[in-house]
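Quick start: read one record
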Amino acid sequence: MGLSKSSVETLIDLVEIKLSCVEVYDRDDSRELLNLQRCKDELSVLAGRAQTAPSEIVALRPRGRRRGRRPSA
């Protein structure tokens, strides 16, 4: 069973909406972001509008959150 071009375009739109809503706070969020980007790339190939290179994902941390140990005084 194949998907119509219209269905693939709709799925790409849905994935892009989800990508715009994802906020990366931990590794699980980062994995979800990578998975969604791969999904979008695969759907783009099906739609015939694939890029020559996969998109680059840049995870941004919200300001004010620190990870790791506190510096010693």
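Helices lie at 5-21, 27-47.
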